[in-house]
């Protein structure tokens, strides 16, 4: 069978070096962004950076010193609002984390009645493994580490985004190319910090735990699964809470501002405008960062757990065991090279080059990563090895595992491009939705829903092909590394994803600061490209969630000692039906939460327009703080019920009905949740870009529907408003639902297998 070419020493060296290189590159990008100054010399800055700031010459001579000072003030208000919200949210999450950590320890410790004696291993009964209480303790520690890393990832992303938004606005004075580079570099800071931190913390955790576990790799990597659970549980609340915050403000600002008062987007007279811009950072940046970190952590944990009971684990081949981490290390290096193509090699000179440049990032990273996967597979795997496959051993060759990772990587690209086709206004589906606005909002809604349903077809086939190929080649381990392949270019994916909200904020700051229309046109062009790439990012996240969830499901079934999942048995079929219902219940909760919060926001914005004299004339300032408070209070209150649904379902089902019913729930939620998530995200994205298609008026057909304020445009705004919670709250949160339920079930599998199914034992 042989061993890997790469030695354990080199493996132990290369992984942390790649992580440190990623962190160093992120800091370099931040340094380059920080060279853009946001307040004039001699004006004190209150944004926490204590810099002596300088104004670049304005090429048009239109936007003077006062507008630049205004940019700094707005940036400060957005940063303070976002920081305040996240700190408040993290206080709630801190209480939850401590309570849930206690539950993990108590439940897993009770498997062997808190015994401190060694026990026979789960898969190799002839060997002795560490006691269950050790697994309980180390699972709890890894859960806390995952939660902390997830929170830090989201918070750092938010701080970077609020640091970069006004800088992007000011760079837009010099041209769209300069603004693009600033926004993209800022996104790269977040992407590389998250990818590198996630890898480094996981690597350190494995090595520290190994000191205690020694040769008990089965127990070691079972304890590591808590890392994925911690990351995803924080991501759930971050996505739901941030999504409710941003969409409550967005819906309130759009309905009253655009439709009732007929004022532009991000107009400073709109009381909800600051809350809207804060929401972009807490939802689309912090929430998304935690979400993708959770996907990365879970896919790594799933692969490590399955590998630990394969020939890698039995022979204690550390290099082969760390194959998932080496893939991620290669991904950081590939993304570093890819980023240089956008920032240093190909210069953006015109608006039409923005979107192709972002899409080129996806293609370059995918092609380079394919080569990187081949190198890692050749050097880090034995030529032949065995993988545990539901009680039997499957012989696998290293080239087969290469194809598993590669098929996941390329399936992600296919999903990304199909998502772009259905959500970009450059193609016929969105243009048809825009044309449907001629006859009002009802036909717009009908066309948008139809588009969302249709957009599910190709991504599901791509996921199905990836599952079939990877499972055929390497069983459940193949699916786990296919998910990792889809996420291997996470640094580039996050850079592209974060670029969108940064550009959106930059446009809002330009509008509020009163800058001339040319600068707003440039930031709008950046934002339009960002909308499409954000939809691509959501497609990646949902596709990877399906593969991750299936891999975790396989690990759960193995750990719970289920030999087969028979859908003809009543225990399983009731679980399937209930599991398929859960995404709808969850979506109902999140949609209603946005609606309730938006209702309060609309009433407050209307009240201010009615009761503040001179607000519409621009002679009086709106009360931004009240709108920020409405969004904050609503999101913190409303994120609890959906979060409780997801976190409690596996515990209740596992304890009362047992592991077979729980396996049905997980399968049902996976199959249903992926479809609903893709449909919701693409429907919302299409409505958003249909509105922007009309507003831009770039073609004769678009100009016939416009201008802003026309009946067709108002119909498009209504569609966009309906789509906001679909694409930014319910849709993105669903991928966390299916992953989180699966990883939670895996962590608690020993408890469910020992004490679960109370009702069926009566």
TrEMBL record:
One Gene Ontology MF term: diphosphate hydrolysis-driven proton transmembrane transporter activity
Major location (coarse): membrane
Enzyme nomenclature, EC number: 7.1.3.1
First-level EC class: translocase
Membrane topology: Multi-pass membrane protein
Keywords: Ion transport, Magnesium, Membrane, Translocase, Transmembrane, Transmembrane helix, Transport
Domain of life, source organism: Eukaryota
Cell compartment(s), UniProt: Endomembrane system
Entries under Pfam families matching the protein: H_PPase
Entry's Gene Ontology cellular component terms: endomembrane system; membrane
Chain ranges passing through the membrane: 12-32, 92-111, 132-156, 176-204, 321-342, 362-381, 401-419, 456-484, 540-562, 568-586, 645-671
HAMAP family linked to this entry: PPase_energized_pump (MF_01129)
Protein name: H(+)-exporting diphosphatase
Organism in which the protein naturally occurs: Araucaria cunninghamii
